[in-house]
Amino acid sequence: MKGKIITNQENQKKSILLSIIILLIGIVLVTNSNQIVIIGFQCIGACILLFGIYELIRFFTIKKQLKTEIQSLLLNGVMCSIIGLLTILGASILELGLRYIIGFYLILSGVNKIGNAFLWRKDSSNIFYIYLIEGLILTGFGLYTVFYANAALMLIGVLLIISSIFDFITYFKVKK
Predict the structure, then answer these.
(1) Which has the closest alpha carbon to 34: 163, 157, 160, 165?
(2) Where are the strands (E) in 24-166, listed by range?
(3) pLDDT 10s digits, 121-148
């Protein structure tokens, strides 16, 4: 069995292409994080709907071929179709609910960290500042998530952009 030897130049071309793709994904996450979540819910709803349709087709096929009815297939098909359709149609409501849940969780975690910071204030000043800064950041991200956008996805997008920029810098430094 013959294998292809991958040269360093081919690896670099694949690396730069992957960096471009990661950069684009990062930009999309930073600019359209709410829309990404809505599209995700719509895709999940479409999969559930397709499974429901598949179960209904199986029910009618078995009914026609074997002259028997399997009620669980009919029930699964109808329920999955309804849930899938509701998920598709209510994707923006689900996104808003998810955003509020994540935001309030971040706010509560941040307030908890701030409270813990004041418990450590007398023992060690370094731990106090670490907890305080972490609590303020979490609370800020929580407020941002509740009022504006999905901060978690935006943060992932920013990290992807930074990673791809470092990849570009490395690629061009190695190329010289």
Answers:
(1) 157
(2) none
(3) 777 667 788 888 999 999 998 898 888 8
| Cα–Cα distance measured from residue 114 to residue 127, given in angstroms and rounded to the nearest whole number | 11
Task: Give the model confidence (pLDDT) of 78-114 as tens digits.
Answer: 999 999 999 999 999 998 898 899 889 989 999 999 9
Contacts for 102 with CB less than 8 Å, ≥ 6 apart: 142, 145, 150, 151, 152
Q: Report the alpha-carbon distance of residue 116 to residue 32 in Å, rounded.
A: 35
- 120 CB-near residues (< 8 Å, 6+ apart): 127, 128, 131
Pairwise CA distance, residues 7 & 71, whole Å = 59
Among the listed residues 103, 95, 106, the one whose alpha carbon sits nearest the alpha carbon of residue 147: 103
pTM over 0.85: no
In whole angstroms, give the CA distance from residue 158 to residue 113. 24
DSSP state of 6: P
pLDDT tens digits, residue range 42-77? 999 999 999 999 999 999 998 888 888 888 889 999
